[in-house]
Amino acid sequence: VQLQASGGGLVQAGGSLRLSCVTSGFNLDDYPIGWFRQAPGKEREGVACFAYRDDTKYYSDSVKGRFTISRDSGGNTVYLRMNSLKSEDTAVYYCARQSLHGTSCLFPPLYNDWGQGTQVTVSS
Predict the structure, then answer these.
(1) How many beta carbons lie within 10 A of that of residue 75, not counting itself?
(2) Helices and strands in the chain, H and E counts
(3) What CA–CA distance (Å, rounded) separates 52 from 110?
(4) 36-75 confidence digits (pLDDT tens)
(5) Is the sign of the CA dihedral 74, 57, 63, 83 positive or negative?
(6) Other C-beta atoms lying within 10 Å of the C-beta of residue 98
(7) Mind listing the pLDDT tens digit for each residue in 70-106?
(8) Residues 46 and 62 sit within 8 Å (Cβ to Cβ)
């Protein structure tokens, strides 16, 4: 099982980025993927995810309306489109494969397999 996140970088506030998570070693249709982030000195938090039982998308309140999670149909890549970026979005972003059922797909302990992370820095 491998997850490779990419697409991070330095962007000005108000700008956009699209992160990609290329997966291998499993069927993306069987395991939902979530996006998470961790800023220095803070806990890892869920940003966007697909629910386990269906493809319903969930977002944290801090990114709702600005970020969009998507996947290529029949493929192996999940995306996170980030618009109207703010300085508080600065963090290392990770994609992960959900392995456990839970009440919220934004809950990090539900995920056992993680990518290496990609840095997003938003300058104000």
Answers:
(1) 10
(2) 0, 11
(3) 10
(4) 999 999 999 999 998 876 778 999 999 999 999 999 887 8
(5) positive
(6) 21
(7) 998 878 999 999 999 999 999 999 999 998 887 889 9
(8) no
CA atoms of 68 and 57, how far apart (whole Å):
9
Largest CA-CA distance found in the chain, in angstroms, rounded = 40
- The residue with tokens 């998470």 is 36
* 115 in Cβ contact with 21 (< 8 Å): yes
Positive or negative, the CA dihedral 84, 96, 101, 88 is negative
Cα angle, residue 9 at apex, residues 38 and 23 outer, rounded to 5°: 70
End-to-end CA distance of the chain: 37
Neighbours of 113 (CB within 10 A): 17
